[in-house]
């Protein structure tokens, strides 16, 4: 069977940053450690006055096409995943194609374009669509461009404000990929939930605590479903497990649940028995509440064990390095987590080719999806080309007043002029609105 997967990745961060413990926490009268230790965040990314989901997506895509030496005719499909769209009809992919056509010879007139929506899981679903399109033999030898781009803003004063972020991830999906091959097996955990939604509004209505419970419940369902078609997973099966990362503290909870599930009935559970006992089994309890209480007590002990701590440090913590500095990028978040892990491996000379990742995506509303990936020969060269560190270093550091101005500038219900904080160079910029309220873009040399 032909291998299909991710051949190249590019990441574009919003050009501004907000220091959460240093600037945001004092302005809110909160303890900085809520951000660093509790949520696990240091800074978040924001778009400058001339940036939006189109510019960030187009800039990531251009960088990817330039690096891979691609022309528009090499691309047969452009799918954009976003939950920050500003138009209920015209897809963001047409805007991005229009931007790219300004700078390349040729056009994307024979490429299939679309926009995927299912909260943060839509980026992974777009990869799925591309995978299926290639596997079905409909691609005529061409690659698919998947772009996950979001400006994840919450209303000011909403608890979610702490987890904002903005950026785009562009991925090239091809046969014989250079980064990762995707497994055919997938697991789903999906249910009609009202944890986080945007009923025709820009800023989300969120039940924060409930959203965390739903995330964990759907992830657990998806893992069981994955195992039913793949195999019983074990912690040693995967070099890294990138999760959707709304904030690193959420992944801390998901990682512990996943570990408990994977070690059940294994030699690890046996080895831990003398210290923390065996895992509570539902059939040994009279009701669900007492079972849950016993599970919570077991997990409190499990998380302190050397076995768990060292697995977490190896398989999970490296996936969070970028998220800590950029916040939530919604559709791009799990793809940032994968890139973060691969970059950590490259920086530490880990020989990763042939090893497996377990990728756990999630979208509110709600659906989790879990699949495995096999790292391809050539991954290190691709990952070595990422410039995310330099981009993060170059971000303009906002004061709290400036943050409020930027938030207003990107509020669709406000019409706020704002002087840019950074100078655009070699990138697409937003220039204003046309006669039908369409957005206009130019390429700045
Ligand atoms: N020192 C150390 N830790 C501290 C602390 C301090 N001084 N103060 C607080 N903390 C800890 C808290 O104990 C808590 O950790 P635990 O959950 O492990 O107990 C953590 O920091 C956060 O503190 P709070 O719970 O008090 O924070 P909050 O109520 O203000 O908001 C939130 C947290 C509900 C996640 C909020 O940020 C939110 O609504 N976010 C948006 C929704 C979201 O991201 N949900 C995630 C799942 S849904 C999803 O994944 C989809 C998506 O992308 C949105």
From TrEMBL:
Span of domain Hydroxymethylglutaryl-coenzyme A synthase N-terminal: 3-175
Keyword Transferase (UniProt): yes
Class of enzymatic activity (EC top level): transferase
Superkingdom, taxonomy of origin: Archaea
InterPro entries to which the protein is assigned, alphabetical: HMG-CoA_Synthase-like (IPR053544), HMG_CoA_synt_C_dom (IPR013746), HMG_CoA_synth_N (IPR013528), Thiolase-like (IPR016039)
Pfam families, alphabetized: HMG_CoA_synt_C (PF08540), HMG_CoA_synt_N (PF01154)
Enzyme nomenclature, EC number: 2.3.3.10
Gene Ontology MF: a single term: hydroxymethylglutaryl-CoA synthase activity
GO biological process terms held by the UniProt record: isoprenoid biosynthetic process
Start and end residues of each Hydroxymethylglutaryl-coenzyme A synthase C-terminal domain: 195-412
Keywords attached to this entry: Acyltransferase, Isoprene biosynthesis, Transferase
Similarity comment: Belongs to the thiolase-like superfamily. HMG-CoA synthase family.
Name the record gives this protein: Hydroxymethylglutaryl-CoA synthase
Organism of this sequence: Halobaculum lipolyticum
Encoding gene per record: hmgB
